[in-house]
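cache lookup: miss for this entity combination. No prior model stored, computing from scratch. Input as submitted by user K.M.:
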Amino acid sequence: MALSYDDVVARYEPSLGLEVHVELNTETKMFCGCATVFGAPPNTQTCPVCLGMPGALPMVNEKAIESTIRIGLALNCAITPKSRFARKNYFYPDMPKNFQISQYDEPICTNGYLDVEVETDEGAKTFRIEIERVHMEEDTGKSLHVGGATGRIHGAEYSLLDYNRAGIPLVEIVTKVVSSTGKYAPEVAKAYVKELRDILRSLGVSDVKMEQGSLRCDANVSLAPIGSGKLGTRSETKNVNSLRSVERAVRGEMIRHAGLLDKGERVVQETRHFQEDTGATRSGRSKEQAEDYRYFPEPDLTPVAPDATWIEKLRSELPEKPSVRRARLQALWQVPDKEMAAMVNAGAVDLVEETVALGADPTKARGWWLGEISRLANEAEVELSSVSISPKEVARIVELIGAGELTDKLARQVVAAVIAGEGDPDSVIAAKGIKVVSDESSLIAAIEKAIADQPETAEKVRNGHLPAAGALIGAVMKETKGQADAARVRELLLGQLGQA
Amino acid sequence: MSELVRKSAAELGTLIAQGELSSREVTQAHLDQIAQTDSAIHAFLHVDVQGALAQADHADKSRGESNSPLHGVPLALKDVLAQKGVPTTCGSKILEGWRPPYDSTVVAKLKDSGIVILGKTNMDEFAMGSSTENSAYGPTRNPWDTNRIPGGSGGGSAAALAAMQAPLAIGTDTGGSIRQPAAVTGTVGVKPTYGGVSRYGLVAFSSSLDQAGPCARNVLDTALLHQVIAGYDPKDATSINAPVPDVVAAAKRADVRGMKIGVVKELSGDGYEKGVADRFAESLAILESQGAEIIEVSCPNFKFALGAYYLIAPSEASSNLARFDAMRYGLRVGDDGARSAEEVMSLTREAGFGPEVKRRIILGTYALSAGYYEAFYGSAQKVRTLITRDFAAAYEKVDVLVSPTTPTVAFKIGEKSDDPVAMYLSDVATIPVNLAGVASMSLPAGLSEGLPVGFQIIAPAMRDDRLYQVGGALERELHAKWNGPLTNQIPDLQVR
């Protein structure tokens, strides 16, 4: 019998450590000139350098350095005057050189922080997440295991290697131990990754698509009895591919650890893999015996020594912080706190802003993104930003409603069709023959039919009992297959019944 | 033997440029010499007959468009440099059959200046050794005495020069692999300043020490080749973005008047053979007679150089050689469809690497291990700094440093095979140079009991021109005495 979460946090204090890997969106790889397009045919974006051919040498991508420094600055880090690359040595077939060029004891950015806001029982509360380091490294290739039941290496008949990803610049952002979150640990973890994602997006340094792996989070979780002042043994959960999963993974690991500790068992220090379907984690590689990566300074590269004036220039050009921007937009759109929080949680701020920028009314734009579109996103279990409708399309729908060419109900049909890939709003409307019934004679015919069908209800309205009109309006809408403007129907109906 | 093959590269280049000789004739003469002598010498792992003749024909066609003094002149390339489409093994079974899909920068520069590449020369596996006995394809023999080693790791390139198989060669030098073979074969070899010649396409042994360099039978030819291959390369982050010193002018000037030449006290005495010490002293006397001032200097930390080198080089090698894993190129052992990738990697490395390479991978892996790193790799790096300071202090007083290149003349094949430390001591005088990244030349100083002795000159970083200035002066006097290059005295060259 699994413990309840409330049981867990009543007795244990969680500590977190979050490692986020971000694939930079540079046009070329970290150490060579190969392209970095996602989804290209296997092994078409490779060269002697990223294939680790004998004799090939790395050259540092200046743009990647710039992006990393900007990330560090946005996270309030110190920029190391002279940082170095190091080799992390281990054998794996998808790593062409059998060492990864990374940074070890001299990372490019250190000692920053990020403040995140989480809704607590006492209202919104800010948690400061301290950043230990931000460093650069190269990504590995990908192994595709063919045959066998699981798609994993064990039991596979053979494996295919794709080195397109090998050498794509990665930035790793590592927090210090995050404690004092208490029961909010899962929410804090999610809020951190989300805020980080928003910052990275505002910097324009990465696609930050968790589902495509351009933003990956490893969540370290440990529990200790409340008041013990100690850190428990941690597990490191990988494969956490969405914000929702970050929260689920942390909560799930807390419950799993507590279960072990309650039984007097010990938590094994290991890597675990998050499973989206069950929300549970599966045991991976043990880290009980720390792997020896034999780090040493990369002799093929010189130290990275960014010019101080350049750093200051980059600092001065940082975009508005997402949190500052949110406050500004909230004031501008006059949104209540609770609704702003809902918009932030749903990842709707950018979408609403873009929709408003295209001419839509802020309240209407927000209504669509947080209402119908969010509902469809939830149904499909995807992030709002992954739903295939654009701010431009939403703005057009809002415009059509304003012009009386769509009713809210018709608009919902259009939204569903756009998301289903049937085309943009105008082509959906044309294809489906959607139009508001504005021919008053046919409306009046429908109204007369409704009155004739429900004489008693009509009588109630005549006698001044206006709520009864709803049933009649409903009948008219049904008769006109929802294509009538409900407000106009009401107007005409009440006129007919002497209540105008 | 065609007399053509005794000519210097400079002379051949001039004759080709004037249309007196075609590159094809010159190339063919050297290919013939290889065919006649290489069964006895085994300088080459791969002779690219068709490729070389095609390059020669191309050179003949494009003669009018070139102002390269080495246009059409053939060269022997150490098998550690990638040449597109031509087998490149590094003397190892693990790379058997690999044909690089790209040219190293050195090769690209050679091709650009119209130099004809005859083939790939033998070497100790992955440049680890001082005798070329560690080649997986069998040893190279010293043309002076085929029972003796030609030095290593670049024994193939040096032997090819001495055996008149090529007038020019490229070597690489991590701890002495250009200079020690030059010394024991009576040829000239230069290890340029670290970063002076691009390492792009040089299969790495120890990245922070490796340097490709020019080899020939005389100083001017070496300078001409140096000029071709040197210079900044945007593909090599460790290459130096500064003008190459004019080494050709320095070789021609060959004037030591007023120069201060420092004799390194620590690179003499015990372990240095009498014949070696005598030739060294005679060379010093010549330089002094030419107007140089000879000063003794002390470099106290040189005594730690060998130890530091045998931590740094294997450490880097253990990482550099990790890529040979059967996944993408080269040898693959045990891939029967049932074994895992890890097992195939392991079996391939077991079968593909020779004992000396395994020894160094194990040494380096150990030295980099957690808990040992500071004591081994960390300490070695500190020694490296101290040695660099020794050089800096010495260059406050003198323009160049000199020493015998090696403590002994060529030893017999098999003599030191079972004693790695004795073998490592062959490089005791050359290793400090690599640790500090400075420039160095070995040139012939004469014979000891019929075998060549090398004279080493060491110049500050990016002052490679001084090597040629001093070497040229010394050589002028010695050639006058010998009536030509020392290699002309090799007995019975064509008999075998």
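stored under new cache key. The first helix of chain A runs from residue 5 to 11.
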